[in-house]
Amino acid sequence: MKAPRPGTRVPVADGPADARLLTVASDYLKRFGFKGLTVVAVADAAGMTHANVYRYFPSKAALIDAVAGQWLRKLEALIAGIADAPDPADDKLERLLQAWAGAQRDLLVEDRHLFDVYVTATETSRPLVRRHKARMRQLLERVIDEGVATAKFDPRDRERALSFITDTTYRFINPVAIRLDQDVPPDILDQRLATAIRIILRALAFGNV
After folding, report:
1. pLDDT per residue over 174-204, tens digit each?
2. Which of 65, 110, 193, 204 could form an SS bridge with 153, CB 3.0 to 4.6 Å?
3. In order of start, what are the domains of the chain with their CATH numbers?
4. Is the dihedral of CA 23, 25, 26, 32 positive or negative?
C-alpha cells in the first residue's frame, strides 16, 4: 500500500494528545507498515506539528513501541482475567494457553504490520518485550501456585514446571515461531496445541516435572 499523502486525516476521538497520537499511529502502521509511518505524517493526520509529537515520543521507534505496548497490555489484561477467574487451576491453565496462542495468531491475520513489529521487538529483546514476558510469567506462576495449593498440580520443582510449560508451548506462544507456522491450517494448530496442553496438565498432575 502506498504511503499516505500529506494532509491525510484519520478520525481521532477527543482526549489526551498522546492517546490521539497513538490512535493515528496504530492506524497508519496497520495500513502502511513501519516504513510508511513517519512522525511527520502522524503529526499532520493528528492536526499538530511533528515537534509536538516529540514532546510525547522522542523518536519514531518510541512511538512504534508505544503502539505495540498498547496491544501487549491488552493481551496481558486478557490473560489476567483468566488467571483471576474462579475456575479450577487446570481449567484456567488450559484456557490461558489457548487464549495466549489465539490472540497472537489473530494479530498475525488482522494486523500483520503490528505483528512484524512485535516479532522484531522479540528478536532484539527490546525492553517492552522483556517487561511483557515478565508480566506473563507472573500470571502463569499465579495459576501454577494456585494449582499446587488446591492439589490440582503436584510438580516436583516449580521452576522446572514453568520451564516445561513454556518449552512445550513455544511453537504456539512465541511470535517468531507463530510467523513460521502462518501457512499451517488453524485447525491443525489447534489440535497440536490441545495435545501439548494435555501433556502439560498430565505432567503437572502426576509430578512428572
Report:
1. 999 999 999 999 999 999 999 999 999 999 9
2. 204
3. 17-58 (1.10.10.60), 68-205 (1.10.357.10)
4. positive
